[in-house]
Design a protein that fits this description.
Blueprint: H1 2-19, H2 29-32, H3 36-39, E1 44-48, E2 54-59, E3 68-73, E4 78-81, E5 102-107, E6 110-115, E7 120-125, E8 131-136, E9 142-147, E10 150-155, E11 160-163, E12 166-169, H4 172-176, H5 182-190, H6 192-211, E13 216-220, E14 222-229, E15 236-242, E16 250-253, E17 262-265, E18 277-282, E19 289-291, E20 323-325, E21 329-330, E22 336-342, E23 347-353, E24 359-366, E25 386-389, E26 394-399, E27 406-411, E28 416-419, E29 427-432, E30 439-443, E31 452-457, E32 462-467, E33 472-477, E34 483-489, E35 496-501, E36 509-510, H7 517-520, E37 528-533, E38 539-545, E39 556-560, H8 577-588, E40 592-597, H9 606-610, H10 619-634, E41 642-647, H11 649-660, E42 667-671, H12 682-689, H13 696-702, E43 715-720, H14 728-741, E44 746-751, H15 761-780
Parallel strand pairs: 12-13, 39-40, 39-41, 41-42, 42-43, 43-44
Antiparallel strand pairs: 1-2, 2-3, 3-4, 5-6, 6-7, 8-9, 9-10, 10-11, 14-15, 15-18, 16-17, 18-19, 20-22, 21-22, 22-23, 23-24, 25-26, 26-27, 27-28, 29-30, 30-31, 31-32, 33-34, 34-35, 35-36, 37-38, 38-40
Length: 782
């Protein structure tokens, strides 16, 4: 018995020594997966205050539960926490109000004013109904604002308020029809009191209607999308949309305070019914409303080319395609510009709209894939960069017509368009100067992986370098445009706050120091940004992490970033900072790591962006295979020792790699992965794959679940159970396919309290422990 006990004791020791994977790095997964608690909390959301004397920002230098607001004063150069007892705390400067002496703003739903000359503030309107969307008018004493559904005009000089619109939910019939049941009819017949009250109500209502000169607009079953007023207050534009009945999904929460499972409503799936939008022009005080007719929009009925693959040879639909429009831009001189987008994502129109409902097309952009790119209105209802400039004689906007997102200008007098910027780079953000004659750009002009800050003269086409050192700059101009508030980062250092003079090649002065002592103890590698050729000859950028030759174990890991349209092979701080630290840990253990900006990543122009049209898991996966080939051919990596992992879109590519190229990778870890695009959201998916109802080919070849039978190599799937983006159902459905197919070399780890972006450090730690152990076991046979 003693000998048997001794044998079991030593067997136990051997078992745990074999099962325990040894990490050769000074970095510990449990520590680096704490994220900002380990790195330090860098400043975020910086802005100039309303006076222009302070830079305000969110920061957490003392590692407290949440970030708070801090202020940096340019005169005394001191950082202080913000006093929230001051009504001006947190009120940011608004460049659209720079030409006025009075700056209006909303605070806790009430209207306030700030005098730029006297530096004083006052509350103008206090109401239980929330005030929003302030519109400056041509009369400097007047502003329009929205309260509830309606617009109001406030005159600061006279102290008067005038209601401009009267939107009524329901129909006119609903408002005026009072059906009497038998009981109410009896009450009216029996009692004089009831008849008198009814008569008084009817009289009062008739007087109110006569007193209110605004024409009531009954929304019936529609929704009010927006209401916008012209600068002279004479014209109002508003949009309505039909309500649509789209079936929602639900996310089950199992870890709850009550102990009961709770179900929460989430998004619909791709293929939802889109609403009809209507645009109206209304003149206050005139009993007529014009509905804009868009029949004359060029190609409004044009069919996409891909339908010919399904035998549809006709070129036009019988009816107009559905369109959606953003709030109109209205100049002080009365010019109105409207940005319109087709719901099938193929066309964008920018039109000059007249008050009688007629219009002139400024720009028509068409893309057989989908309209997109930085600074361009897109599927998420982002309006894009556009506006009036040059004393309202011209209108600027961004377009990918040249292949990269650049700035264009339309001249109203000559009715001509000019491309202002050009080159093999992207304009990523635009700031117009106060005099409307100079542009400031954030652009990757010097390198696809940099985001520099430039001044541009649109008349001479001269560029002036302001901030161009390697890395990325997020810049805000001060109210007087003499200073810059800057967030800057490079590869190894997260964002820090700086300020600088607005001059050529300025030298920023650092304000914050956020890195923790624990983070600074480690000698972080600066990953090289390398270039290689994809299978079709296009240039691909990637981050490369390499161990020393002594450490090198001939194994490699490919990391696939998420979001699809995102850039990670760049020269600034990564949004995947936990993965960046994990890659340093992997290199300490002898791995080579390649992080690829595969096809459809941002920063590389239109063709690169749309190369995945109708086939996700096509060229984007091919780029990762080309990356593996580079590692094998040039860096002495064993082709049998290459693993792949990623989250969200990166998890999807990992699945496509193991299921459509089953002999290429030794193993894979797929985090929060899309397994079937027919179950993802409508806006993102329909951009790239069209609709399930009209492009089944695209959905079939792009969805991993259709290739589940091909699984050969070990697969680890990890998913949050309360993910309301890529929902838990995705991984459950794929798991069921594996079970039915008799697959045994897969595993699933679930995280009951995590959504799409993990929050809890213990969840991150458990997730990456499993990924590390997978690579150690399958790539190194430990």
């Amino acid at each position: 018995m003693k000998n048997l006990f001794t044998f079991l004791f030593f067997l136990s020791i051997n078992f745990f020594s074999i099962g325990q994977i040894e990490n050769q790095s000074q970095l510990k997964i449990a520590e680096i997966m704490k994220g900002k608690d380990f790195i330090g909390y860098w400043p975020e959301n910086h802005y100039w205050d309303i006076s222009g004397e302070n830079i305000l920002f969110q920061w957490n230098p003392n590692n407290e539960l949440t970030s708070t607001t801090y202020s940096y004063n340019l005169k005394n150069q001191k950082i202080t926490s913000v006093d929230f007892n001051n009504p001006l705390s947190g009120v940011s400067y608004n460049s659209s109000q720079s030409q006025f002496d009075i700056h209006y703003f909303v605070l806790e739903g009430n209207l306030w004013a700030y005098n730029n000359k006297t530096k004083t503030h006052s509350e103008l309107i206090s109401s239980t109904s929330y005030i929003s969307r302030i519109h400056r008018q041509s009369n400097p004493s007047e502003i329009a604002y929205q309260q509830g559904l309606d617009l109001f005009l406030y005159n600061n000089e006279k102290g008067t308020i005038r209601q401009l619109t009267q939107f009524v939910k329901g129909s006119e019939k609903d408002q005026n029809h009072h059906e009497l049941n038998a009981l109410s009819q009896q009450q009216e017949q029996l009692f004089q009191y009831i008849r008198e009250e009814k008569e008084l109500d009817e009289w009062s209502t008739s007087k109110e209607v006569k007193k209110n000169k605004n024409l009531p607009f009954y929304l019936d079953k529609s929704n009010l999308d927006f209401v916008q007023i012209s600068k002279d207050g004479q014209t109002i534009f508003f949009s309505t949309s039909t309500s649509t009945e789209n079936k929602s999904t639900y996310v089950e929460h199992h870890i709850t305070r009550t102990g009961y499972t709770e179900s929460q409503q989430a998004r619909p799936k791709v293929g939802e019914i889109e609403p009809f939008h209507n645009l109206y022009i209304y003149k206050p005080g005139i009993d007529s409303i014009i509905k804009v007719n868009f029949d004359k929009l060029e190609d409004i009925r044009k069919k996409p080319i891909f339908l010919s693959e399904y035998g549809d040879q006709s070129t036009e639909y019988e009816q107009n395609r559905k369109i959606v429009f953003h709030r109109p831009h209205v100049s002080f001189s009365g010019v109105t510009v409207l940005d319109i987008r087709s719901y099938d994502n193929k066309d964008r129109w920018i039109i000059q709209l007249e008050n009688d409902g007629s219009f002139h097309v400024i720009s028509h952009q068409h893309d057989e894939a989908w309209i997109g790119g930085p600074g361009i209105s897109s599927w998420n209802q982002s309006p894009g960069n556009m506006g009036f400039w040059n004393n309202e004689q011209s209108f600027y906007y961004q377009s990918e017509e040249s292949g990269y997102s650049h700035l264009y200008s339309y001249d109203f007098k000559n009715k001509s368009t000019e491309q202002l910027t050009s080159g093999l780079f992207e304009i990523q953000d635009v700031i117009l100067s106060k005099d409307e004659k100079t542009f400031y750009f954030k652009a990757n002009k010097s390198h696809p992986g940099n985001q520099g800050f430039y001044k541009f003269n649109p008349f001479s086409k001269e560029w002036t370098n302001i901030l161009t050192e390697e890395g990325a700059y997020d810049v805000l101009l001060s109210p007087d445009e003499k200073s810059l508030a800057i967030l800057y980062s490079n590869k190894n250092s997260p964002w820090e706050l700086f300020y600088a003079k607005n001059i050529k090649d300025t030298k920023p002065n650092r304000i914050t120091h956020s890195l923790s002592d624990d983070y600074k103890k480690y000698s972080w590698r600066e990953p090289r940004v390398i270039l290689f050729k994809g299978g079709d000859g296009k240039t691909i950028h990637a981050r490369l992490y390499e161990p020393t030759e002594i450490k090198k174990n001939q194994a490699a890991v490919l990391f696939v970033h998420g979001a699809g349209y995102l850039q990670n092979a760049h020269n600034y701080w990564s949004s995947y900072y936990r993965e960046y630290m994990f890659h340093n840990l992997l290199v300490d253990n002898g791995y080579t790591v390649l992080d690829i900006d595969f096809r459809a990543s941002s920063g590389y122009g239109r063709d690169f962006r749309t190369d995945i049209y109708r086939h996700m898991g096509g060229l984007d996966l091919s780029d990762n295979l080309s990356g593996k080939k580079l590692l094998v051919d040039s860096l002495n990596i064993d082709p049998e020792k290459v693993g792949i992992y990623g989250g969200s879109y990166g998890g999807f590519i990992t699945l496509m790699a193991l299921l459509t190229e089953p002999d290429e990778f030794a193993c894979g870890a797929a985090l929060r992965s899309v397994t079937d695009w027919m179950h993802y959201n409508h806006e993102y998916t329909s951009n790239i794959l069209n609709y399930p109802s009209n492009d089944s080919i695209a959905y079939y070849r792009s969805s991993p679940i259709n290739f589940a039978k091909n699984l050969k190599k070990p697969l680890l799937m990890l998913h949050g159970m309360v993910d309301d983006n890529v929902q838990f159902q995705d991984v459950v459905r794929l798991s069921q396919r594996f079970i039915e197919l008799g697959k045994t070399n897969w595993d699933l780890a679930v995280f009951p309290v995590e959504a799409h972006g993990f929050i809890k450090p213990y969840s991150w730690s458990d997730e990456y422990r499993r990924i590390f152990e997978l690579f150690e076991k399958e790539l190194l046979n430990k």
